Amino acid sequence: MSPETASLLARLRGFLLPEGDAAARDIETVRIFEKGEMRASEQARWMSFSAEQTIQTKFSGFRWDARTSGVVITDAYEDGHGIAMSRLAGLLTLKKAMRGPELDRGEVQRYLGSLMLCPAALANHASLEWTAVTESVLRVRDLADPTGAAVDFEIGSDGEPRSSTTIRPRLVGRNAVDTKWEGKGSDFRLWDGMRMAYRLEVWWEIPGAPFCYYRSEVTQCERAA
Q1: Global pTM exceeds 0.90
Q2: Is the C-alpha dihedral spanning 63, 169, 57, 144 positive or negative?
Q3: What residue ranges define each of the domains in the chain, with the CATH number in brackets?
Q4: pLDDT digit of tens for each residue in the chain (225 aa)?
Q5: Residue 159 — φ and ψ, nearest 5°?
């Protein structure tokens, strides 16, 4: 690890883990409850949702289940594969939105971009590799991930992760189009000796027409069995 990387990573860890690694060592899974709004395009109406998300701290994995207008939506990365599906509440028939290597990469990127919601991963996830790209940007990837996914974090002078960015596949019709993606965390609060973002906005940086498509707030956070 270069001195530049070590210095920037120490700044990030000092902000997210103010009580050190010990506070995070025995946390394997975090469960987060959220409420918020999302939309499919800049012209589309916002739809309210409530969601439950579990995030792994020792390996790359998460599951996000949301309910909106009678529809249950799942986004996940489990057993090395991405999952994106929706169904009418109470029905078993599932509709897959994407599948294959593009979805796998996109869901790993979502996991990496969510580290501001799961600081324990900085202490527990042994295969994460960090590299300083500039004096204020840290790139993270999972060495155990075959997709080559990576996410860049903009780190403030106090160590706060201001944003996470990457080039992520976006579903356009039936095709996956690589598009700049940005997540912005705010309202960081202490929880169990760690500092995590309680508000999140996510953007697609479409050339000439960037738009926020997701905004949420954490209503509860707990250790999961």
Answers
A1: yes
A2: positive
A3: 3-40+48-223 (2.50.20)
A4: 899 999 999 999 999 999 999 889 999 999 999 999 999 888 889 999 999 999 999 999 999 999 988 888 999 999 989 988 887 655 554 455 556 788 999 999 999 999 999 999 999 999 999 999 999 999 999 999 999 999 999 999 999 999 999 999 988 777 788 999 999 999 999 999 999 999 999 999 988 888 999 999 999 999 986
A5: 95, -5
